[in-house]
Amino acid sequence: MRDLLLQCAGVLTIVVALIHGYLGEAKVFARARIEPERLRTLIRLVWQASTIAWIGGGVLLIVVPRMHSELARHWIVATMACVFGFSALANAWATRGRHFGWMALSAVVVMSVAGY
C-alpha cells in the first residue's frame, strides 16, 4: 500500500506538472506583456524549468519503491514533500486559494508522506 501511494503521488505530480506547463503557455504568457523580449524568454524558460523539475520529482516518486533502499525512500520523499509543500503554499497564497493547483500539490504531499 505504501508503494502504491508513492506511485500515485508520482503520477499526480506529473499530471500537475503538465497542466502547469500548458496553462503557463496558454493562459499566462499568451496575455503577458514582458519587455524586453529576452526577459520574456528567460521568464518563460524558468517557468518551464519548474515543470520539468516537477516531472522529475514525479518520476522519482514512481520508481522509489523499486530502489530497495530505505535511505533513498526517506530522502526522496522528504525532499519532494518539501518542494511540493512549498509550491502548494506559494500557490495558495499567490492565488488567495482560488486556483486548484495548491489542492493538487497538497494531495501529492499527503500521499507521499503517507507512503513513506
From TrEMBL:
Listed transmembrane segments: 45-63, 75-93
Q: Give the highest taxon in the source lineage.
A: Bacteria
Write the record's keywords in alphabetical order, separated by commas.
Membrane, Transmembrane, Transmembrane helix
Provide the protein name: Membrane protein
